[in-house]
Design a protein that fits this description.
The protein is an alpha/beta fold. The protein is built from 19 helices and 14 strands. The chain folds into two domains: 197 residues, Rossmann fold, CATH 3.40.50.720; 218 residues, Rossmann fold. The structure holds uridine-5'-diphosphate-glucuronic acid.
């Protein structure tokens, strides 16, 4: 077991820190944001992530997990440093590595023993080598270090489970010493025979982008199938189901909808295309998935207009703002472009989301009329637009809903409402790839 410091307490850093503590390591989660650290020290969790509070509490009480804004001291006390700071989309679609590089400089100044420096943030291939150069040139001592790439595969909403019971762990290493230290860090997973892919650093860095880009391609692929299914009277769910029965395809990530969003797929697909260009490699398939994803948001708007051709002054109830269920994250959520499209045509938008309204107002629409309940958002509406697959929305009582609306129009952009019930209660409805079922 090791003394570890995780720098960056976003959802990746916090889940990683708490998870590594659960594996028996001594972990300091460090962040320059004093407010975040104060919140964590009070036992509160700054993000909405299922099971995270329990995991954090358990490990804080066991004395294995602590929080600090003194990053330099946290680095000096640790033999393994995980870098989990943000890599937002930068100019021209590249990943912006400024936070990662600045952490590397801080590590260089505090290299008081041999350390393993491990990138957890999603960083483009070649970043490991860049970090080695930065730390090598800026360290003030002779102490040695190794770089490791250990990409995360955490889905928001199930990140805790994904960390504790992963499908695989990827370790990009360049020395036997760093490999054996990482084996110690992840000892419980080695013991329970979790598949481990131990490879070199560029390969590990690429595995992360390859995985996210492939999933993004799958989503855009099924969305295009859904768009055709809509025109020809086919059912995309049966298509996806039958495709998925072929083990070579797998049924996962073949659910159609308003397109992928969030902090990962949009940014990582763009960054991969940019990395390719730098090396004279065209990622035509990934670029097509990005284009199709942008267009999918227009498809949803077009469905609204099929039911309500003139939006001026019409009350549209938007149910669901988060980019997917079980998160309050609204980064690159399809709801942003779709709401912009509705507002551009002077629709009156009233929105509801169980947890994401605050973020939507804070980051995108300061004046968005968000209501605390579904009923308040839909009362008197001309059309209901479902954008996130929250369980609460799956369970909507359509009979009661109809009673609240001015006109019984619904666009179900996540295919979560019962078509039988929509028909039974006389709704005019559209969904994605099943309209004619
Ligand atoms: C994604 C990956 O799934 C994680 O493995 C990865 O670690 C993470 O990015 C990351 O790079 O940090 P996440 O963005 O949390 O995780 O969400 P997903 O569950 O993958 O969903 C991404 C988007 O695709 C959402 O907008 C979701 O609604 C959409 N999606 C997903 C579909 O439209 N259809 C599907 O069948 C699946």
């Amino acid at each position: 077991m090791r003394n570890i410091c995780v720098i960056g307490t976003g959802y990746v850093g916090l889940v990683t820190g708490a998870g590594l503590a659960d594996f028996g390591n001594e972990v300091i989660c460090a962040d320059i944001d004093q407010t975040k650290i104060d919140v964590l020290k009070k036992g509160e969790i700054p993000i909405y992530e299922a099971g995270l509070k329990e995991l954090v509490d358990r490990n804080v009480h066991a004395g294995r997990l602590s929080f600090s804004s003194d990053i330099e001291s946290a680095i000096r006390k640790s033999s393994v440093i995980f870098i989990a700071v943000g890599t937002p989309i930068g100019e021209g679609g590249d990943a912006d590595l400024s936070a990662v590089k600045s952490v590397a400089q801080t590590i260089a100044r505090n290299l008081n023993t041999y350390k393993v420096i491990c990138t957890k943030s999603t960083v483009p291939v070649g970043t490991g080598s860049q970090l080695r150069v930065i730390i090598d040139s800026e360290r003030k001592t002779d102490h040695n270090f190794d770089i490791v790439s250990n990409p995360e595969f955490l889905r928001e909403g199930s990140a805790v489970r994904d960390f504790l019971i992963p499908d695989r762990v990827v370790l990009g290493v360049n020395s036997g010493k760093s490999e054996s230290i990482m084996r110690e860090v992840y000892r419980p997973l080695f013991i329970n025979k979790t598949p481990m892919v131990i490879t070199n650093i560029p390969t590990a860095e690429m595995i992360k982008y390859a995985s996210n880009a492939f999933l993004a391609v799958k989503i855009s692929f099924i969305n295009e199938m859904a768009n055709l299914a809509d025109k020809v009277g086919a059912d995309v769910h049966s298509i996806a189901h039958a495709m998925g029965l072929d083990g070579r395809i797998s049924s996962k990530f073949l659910h159609p909808g308003p397109g992928f969003g969030g902090s990962c797929f949009p940014k990582d697909t763009e960054a991969l295309v940019q990395t390719g260009l730098k090396h004279d490699v065209k990622f035509q398939v990934v670029q097509a998935a990005i284009n199709a994803n942008t267009f999918q948001r227009q498809i949803i708007l077009a469905k609204v207009k099929e039911l309500l051709p003139a939006l001026d002054g019409k009350h549209i109830a938007v149910l669901g703002l988060a980019f997917k269920a079980n998160t309050d994250d609204v980064r690159d959520t399809p709801a942003v472009d779709i709401i912009r499209g509705l507002l551009a045509e002077n629709a009156l938008v009233k929105a509801y989301d169980p947890v994401a309204s605050k973020n939507m107002i804070k980051y995108y629409f300061p004046d968005l009329d968000c209501r605390p309940t579904v009923s308040e958002a839909v009362k008197g509406a001309d059309l209901v637009l479902v954008l996130t697959e929250w369980n609460e929305l799956r369970g909507l009582n359509l009979k009661d809903l109809k009673g609240l609306l001015k006109s019984p129009n619904i666009v179900d952009a996540r295919n979560i409402l019962s078509i039988d019930d929509l028909k039974k209660y006389g709704f005019n409805y559209r969904n994605v790839g099943r309209s004619t079922v």
